[in-house]
Write a structure and sequence with these properties.
With about 375 residues, this protein is mostly helical. The chain folds into two domains: about 180 residues, no CATH class; about 80 residues, no CATH class. It has 14 helices and three strands. It has a three-stranded antiparallel beta sheet. Helix 1 packs parallel to helix 7, helix 2 runs antiparallel to helix 3 and helix 5 packs parallel to helix 9. It binds a DNA duplex (21 and 21 nucleotides) through helix 3, helix 9 and helix 12.
Length: about 375
DNA sequence: AGACAGGCCTCTTTTACATCA
DNA sequence: GTTGATGTAAAAGAGGCCTGT
């Protein structure tokens, strides 16, 4: 059973006229990006010292070494720990949420407008993590203004840079208040730095959806390219595709289930109808002895037209056909006329010749 | 043949967000 | 308008299976 299913394609998120219009090059935004990045780097250094004067953000080696240390404990668990620890390592980096939350709040221009981007990128995209991911996966997670020139990328650069002053230029269209919500989450993250889940932005989701439409699985090259394009970790792209496939499968299962349910209902109704018809024929047989002289019949189904052909085994056979999908009205009409029992040759009634009188179907002649 | 890595699937957990009282 | 409870979608973790090397 093969059912078509259209998933995704959210008209609100996908750019209908230009599917990848948001990736269009925008020199102005590039300027913004480079500026933001520079400022963001500076900002990042400032945030590298926590209240205790300890270094929070250092170089990649620190992050990597600490993450590897976590891996050591997990490596005892099972033989596949290397792979999972690799997965965990990318996610175990200190979440950069504090960066976004420490933005100066006196700039009211982008207080609410940056929320979507903040949600999508800053929360998870620690620069150190980006560098780590780059080192691990060989994917250049673009922090360079020249790496990928697009407004889409520019947004990432701006928000990853963490400079709120530039948000207004690129954050139009985002709903407000999320920066504050993120701010409210910041204190929690300080205590329990468990995994921090990001919400992909609409643009990222739309882009991933477009990619998914083209191919629902990714080879490593495509994964890296997508990750680079969207400024995500390859693992995130991989997980997204996994979840997307799962969602598709779930939807397909629901559709299949619904289809089978309808099939079951149809067959039940058909079965009920046939039972009723059988009873009527039996009644007719009892009331009309002439019926008893009819030869035995064999039901066969034409594979091409799926019509049921009733053929007899004697030379006096009268081939009868009926479509399994014929509405009950025809059957009812036939049986109603049958119930009159006035015709001594009931098989000659139209019901038994649903095909053209002059040209019986091929299977009829073949069956006889 | 066995070890290993990598990918995918499935189930589960966790998180973010929306809705409602 | 605010707040807490609740439901839902989605990201991510974990483990198993399969395949290729």
């Amino acid at each position: 059973m093969e059912l078509g299913l259209s998933l995704g394609g959210d008209s609100t998120t996908a750019t209908a006229s230009r599917p990848f219009g948001f990736l269009a090059k925008n020199p102005d935004n590039n300027n913004i990006k480079s500026t933001a990045i520079n400022r963001g780097l500076e900002f990042r250094m400032a945030l590298g010292i926590n209240s205790d004067g300890k270094r929070i953000l250092q170089d990649q080696d620190r992050d990597k070494s600490s993450a590897d240390g976590d891996d050591e404990s997990e490596a005892v668990k099972r033989s596949k720990s290397t792979r999972n620890s690799h997965r965990n390592r990318t996610a175990s980096v200190d979440p950069p949420l504090q960066l976004a939350l420490s933005w100066p709040s006196d700039n009211g221009s982008s207080e609410g407008g940056s929320s979507g981007k903040v949600r999508g990128f800053d929360v998870n995209r620690l620069p150190a993590a980006a560098a780590e991911a780059e080192a691990e996966d060989g994917a250049a997670v673009s922090s360079s203004p020249n790496s990928v020139a697009s407004s889409f990328q520019v947004d990432f650069g701006v928000f990853r840079g963490g400079n709120k002053l530039d948000l207004e230029a690129v954050a139009a269209g985002n709903d407000g208040g999320e920066a504050e919500r993120a701010s409210s989450r910041a204190s929690d993250d300080d205590e329990n730095s468990s995994r921090k889940k990001l919400r992909l932005s609409k643009e990222q989701s739309a882009y991933l959806e477009e990619s998914f439409k083209e191919h629902n699985t990714l080879n490593p090259k495509q994964k890296l390219a997508l990750a680079k394009q969207l400024n995500l970790r390859p693992r995130q792209v991989e997980v997204w595709f996994q979840n997307r496939r799962a969602r598709t499968k779930l939807k397909q299962t629901e559709v299949d289930c619904e289809y089978l349910k309808r099939c079951c209902e149809t067959l039940t109704e058909e079965n009920r109808r046939l039972h009723k018809e059988l009873q009527e024929l039996r009644a007719l047989k009892n009331s009309n002895p002439f019926f008893m002289q009819l030869p035995a019949t064999t039901l066969t189904m034409c594979p091409s037209c799926e019509r049921v052909a009733t053929t007899t085994t004697t030379s006096t056979a009268v081939a009868t056909t009926t479509n399994s999908n014929v509405p009950n009205s025809s059957t009812t009409a036939a049986t109603d006329s049958t119930s009159k029992a006035a015709n001594p040759f009931p098989l000659s009634r139209p019901r038994f010749y649903p095909f053209s009188q002059s040209q019986p179907p091929p299977h009829q002649s073949a069956a006889s």
